[in-house]
């Protein structure tokens, strides 16, 4: 493995599409076809998945613990809302990009604050930025609508062809397409040399700097990219619900997001997507049991996950799938398996 | 001029209160390096215990205050022994997740038991109203807070600096391994400290019901304030958090008075600037541990 050629080959092999990944996306599309009455909740899941993907980029790959990721979500949401409300950019896709870019700019500026200091300072600064934006949005309520939120947003048809319908069908396909495209991009990023260097930084910043990785610049870059993703997620939220209120910045949103990512697991991109599905289902389940107090059970899930240990939980969850895969492999190539046993 | 002095007085009272609420966190977060976002939940417990005793059982306010301390401390020590203790050496992310989970649970539980509206504690008549001192309006309740919290701060400083327990705690925090090698029961010291900090938070919660307001969202609303006190104050001694909470108290009261709409905005901006300027806090150690 010390040969550079071997390492390149290894990296290439690990970046290849696996059958399970194809299965995941086929399942996502199949869900859309199978449950046509559930578009709204599925759209919710897709948006949350994109938002969690964004956090995974900085938490799972760069090791930055952020308590205020909702800041970028909120900026994206308000941008998309204001653009549509005042008819500045009527085309939703363009507005989406514009909102994403504004969030990116904010991410770039604030990244300089975030890369300074240790974990605790980062926590405080990210949390502080989100609270700051919330206070600002409340202060300038003539622009943002204050606690009532932006009202009367009307979305123009997508690409001039597909009008958003009541059942959320167009909205869902729109979100899923955006998620898939951005997922491809994220996948490309994390398997590139850039992504590998991020992992080196996460594991040991000092050592990473010693082998010549410009730690701060890499962190700024990934933080900015993550802000773009979060901004897009926020803009999708506004565009598909025609709503943007102060709670887009709320602490609960950032905290829930961490739970999503922790359920799914950090550092392999699908964590956020799987976590979003599980989280929304849990939330549905809890709010049917106790409509008012579902937060209690969410909190309990968090505590239990941490006490059990995140790794152990994922090992247990993957026990059955892994067993199946192993059995399948054995059935497919009994010769190889028996040969390995002999040696 | 007199308005300025009144603001200063109210700010000092507010700051003292914040200090009592947050000084337990200064130990767990600042000294033991455990990110405990659930600190406000202990304060809320104390507040609600006091409210129930005074309003429903007819206890006198001053008799209910020690019970607020005890109840929060007991819950603190139970949680420390059963849950927190396992997380001291874990990654910060785990600690954050765990304590957020506790906050969510406490908010929903209190909402379920006590209802979601704001609760007031019936105060004795002697504490209500205010009197004039050279034209400056002095609230009786706030004056009492300043007196109690001032005494508490002095006592804390003495305990930390002069007593055997204080030196054990400092030793355990500086180097747990060496401390346990010297025969100090480190887990016991941590548990006691944690419980005491929670008790103080509960005490502060009971005192603050009148000024900060007490409802189930208390731990979420004031979480950032407690964190500011500790991170801005630094972790070298309790004087840092004390000064930081005074600054925060005065700044917040003045901000709400002079620029009412920009109040929180000013606080958060100052916090971010200070943390960028000195990541280890205003009065912290210069080298990161």
What can you tell me about this protein's structure?
The complex is a heterodimer of chains A (343) and B (289). Chain A is an all-alpha fold. Chain A has helices spanning 4-15, 19-34, 39-59, 70-85, 92-114, 119-139, 141-144, 169-191, 193-203, 205-210, 215-241, 251-264, 270-289, 294-308, 310-317, 319-332, 334-342. Chain A has a domain at 35-249. Chain A has 17 helices and no strands. Helix content of chain B is 72%, strand content 3%. By secondary structure, chain B is an all-alpha fold. The radius of gyration of chain B is 19 Å and the shape is globular. The interface between A and B is large, with 42 and 44 residues.
Question: Helix content range of the residues of chain A, please?
Answer: over 70%
Rg of chain A, nearest Å: 21 Å
Mean pLDDT over the full residue set of chain B: 85
Report the major sheet of chain A: none
**Gross geometry of chain B:** globular
Q: Please, what is the oligomeric state?
A: heterodimer
Supply the number of helical segments of chain A.
Answer: 17
- C-alpha termini separation of chain B: 44 Å
Secondary structure blueprint with pairings:
The complex is a heterodimer of chains A (343) and B (289).
Chain A lengths: L3 H12 L3 H16 L4 H21 L10 H16 L6 H23 L4 H21 L1 H4 L24 H23 L1 H11 L1 H6 L4 H27 L9 H14 L5 H20 L4 H15 L1 H8 L1 H14 L1 H9 L1
Chain B lengths: L1 H30 L7 H18 L4 H22 L9 H23 L15 E4 L2 E4 H23 L1 H11 L1 H6 L4 H23 L9 H16 L5 H20 L4 H15 L12
Helix pairs in contact in B: 1-5, 1-8, 1-9, 1-10, 2-3, 2-4, 2-8, 2-9, 3-8, 5-6, 6-8, 9-10, 10-11
